[in-house]
Amino acid sequence: MAVSTERLAQDLRDFGLEFEEDEAVCEKMVELCLMHRMKDDELARELIAYTTNKREARITLELLNVFEHDLANRRTSTAKRGGGHAGPRDITSIQELIEEEAEVEDLLDSYTSSSKSSQKRIITTPETPRSKRIVSTRSPHLLFSPTSFSPSATPSQKYSSRSSRGEVVTSFGSAQGMSWSGKGGEGNVSLSVLGCPESLTGTYKSMFQKLVDIREVLICKIEDLGYELKEVYNIEAFAPVLEPAQVVVMEGTNTTGKKLIATKIYQGVPLPFHQSAEEDTEQRMVVVASGPYTTSDSITYDPMMDLIAVVNRDRPDVCILFGPFLDAKHQQVENCQLTSPFEDVFKHCLRTIIEGTRSSGSHLVFVPSLRDVHHDLVYPQPPFSCYELPKEDKQRVLFVSDPCTLSINGVVFGLTSTDLLFHMGSEEICSSSGGPDRFSRILKHILTQRSYYPLYPPMEEMAIDYENFFTYAQLPVTPDILVVPSELRYFVKDILGCICMNPGRLTKGQVGGTFGRLYMRKQNPGQEGRKSPCVAAQVVKI
Description:
This protein is an alpha/beta fold. The protein has 3 domains: 5-154, Orthogonal Bundle (Helicase, Ruva Protein, domain 3); 174-204 and 278-523 and 531-541, Purple Acid Phosphatase, chain A, domain 2 (4-Layer Sandwich), CATH 3.60.21.60; 211-266, no CATH class. It is 32% helix and 16% strand. The chain has helices at residues 5-14, 23-35, 40-54, 61-82, 91-98, 100-110, 114-120, 132-135, 157-160, 211-233, 302-314, 331-334, 342-356, 420-425, 438-449, 466-472; strands at 18-19, 58-59, 168-173, 191-194, 249-253, 261-266, 284-290, 318-322, 363-367, 397-399, 404-408, 411-415, 481-483, 491-495, 498-502, 507-508, 511-512, 514-520, 534-541. The strands form 5 sheets. It has a 7-stranded mixed sheet with strand order 3-19-18-7-8-9-10, with no helix packed on it. It has a 6-stranded mixed sheet with strand order 4-11-12-13-15-14, covered by helices on one side. Strand 5 and strand 6 form a beta hairpin.
């Protein structure tokens, strides 16, 4: 028998229930009847019982999504208790059996006292996939379905109750009173990757290096930097010595052959800035954000949804997104609580971001992270390659490596998702007498050592392939803007003419974090010399 939405609506009204007379709500109720093989009067009875227990007087699309989730859990639990299974099970079935008891308890809680049920009413993220016909014209929230890969997709209480959203925490340049909005990629927005000598575009074989090969790479790096120092400071000759991290030239005496007494130190010099032939004097807006994109106590990705809303509202010309997108340190990943493969969850996130920002027209740049649990755990890290872009998005979406040197209309960005500040800060030894602050010193090391990771030996979590490191992780030029996301405090600084930004993380544990935004415009050099293309920059709370 065909499902009648009119008859269903009348049954609900007879019991004093109101519902949104919206096409999506009606289609959802019809979908529930068809998927669960229920008649319209059976669905009406289920909804009446459910809303009575939940003490809800109005049926909305969000309520129907939560209702379907609970209904599916109840039927799954009943089927498991009612029938046996003698054959072999796959890993998903085994995981479901392990979590059966927890699911039953959650289901019982939703139908018990009002004190417990009132805590569950805050769920606002839709829990079930939508048909493509509906998704294509609706909110990005309808694209995302956390319950498709996690049995416990409850929004974070602390994140939902934050009060300082949108607050500007630090500024640079003429940012005061400025209206932050872009053109959504309209006009001529050119994105190109600069290499040294070439850029990393695909995967490569790793874990095959020999110690002698590592030594050769490090010696070559020392000799290259030493030659530059020799030319700049007019040094006649020097003897290279292999030491960790910073490469310098020291002048001194060695009277005993065992001890060098230094009298002068020549530090490195940065590379020149890129001279672009592109003539683009229009002001462009760029948004930068770094994962994790969901809080540590939830897998609903609410912060990611809020960032999508910011992109759709402000329509930046370019949005640069750093991993991790599915964080290897997330508690549900570490405890193996996800019911879908990591790669599928990652594709789910990317699809939501790409399709959810399609209306804004903004260009998207994705930078991987060593904490992306599904991706290659090697540095330099190749671009994401597992997601096939829709035809309409191929011109506006770019997958790059970590690290990457990116030109946006001739303005050069240095991008890396590796926490350089934390790694180098933990190894640095410095006297604090009147010198620059720690962040400025580290950033100066990066620029003068001409490398995206000048630390040796690296941190234990870094799996560096040194042959490819020498090819793909060196600075080809000094970038106009260097973005270095870190767990450490956010900032925007001018270091040797390069604007360096730490936008922070989009989430910090169970609470919301920050993201960055900046205006850039190429400026012709005047009598005072080169002018930075970064007009203004801010770090903002999500």
